[in-house]
Design brief:
By secondary structure, the chain is an alpha+beta fold. The chain is about 25% helix and about 30% strand. The strands form two sheets. Strands 1-7-3-4-2 form a five-stranded antiparallel β-sheet. A two-stranded antiparallel ribbon has the order 5-6. The longest helix is centred in the N-terminal third of the chain and has 18 residues. It is globular, with a radius of gyration of 14 Å. The N terminus is likely disordered.
Length: about 110
């Protein structure tokens, strides 16, 4: 029974996260990192919702997905400028219908609390 509660809580959190974000666009990154405070974490099976949940749990204002499996969290973004939307062309590892940035390109989301 406890497993069922955990599963429903996880699904509820993912659904909430998909509604409580605003896509800001595709932004340029570099080895110095644009979104840095929360570090870069590689998540196997990455989806946008997984990254959003990670950044929200850490209290950050922005989340960025990059290179299909990377999640970045921070309080600012955009210091290297906006990229063409077509530059963020890599599918998320966990959901090929979503785009998760590309090499040194972040798909950036503002989290709504």
């Amino acid at each position: 029974m406890n497993h069922l509660i955990v599963a429903f809580t996880y699904v509820d959190n993912l659904l909430r996260d998909s509604r409580e974000r605003v896509y800001k666009g595709c932004y340029i990154d570099s080895s110095s990192r644009d979104i840095i405070e929360g570090g870069v974490v590689t998540i196997n099976g990455m989806t946008t919702a997984m990254c959003i949940e990670r950044c929200r749990s850490l209290g950050y204002e922005y989340a960025g997905t990059q290179y299909s499996t990377e999640c970045l969290c921070g309080s600012s973004y955009g210091k290297y400028g906006k990229a063409a939307e077509s530059d963020c062309n890599m599918a998320c590892a966990g959901d090929p219908t979503e785009k998760c940035g590309a090499g040194y390109r972040n798909s950036v989301y503002k989290l709504i609390y």
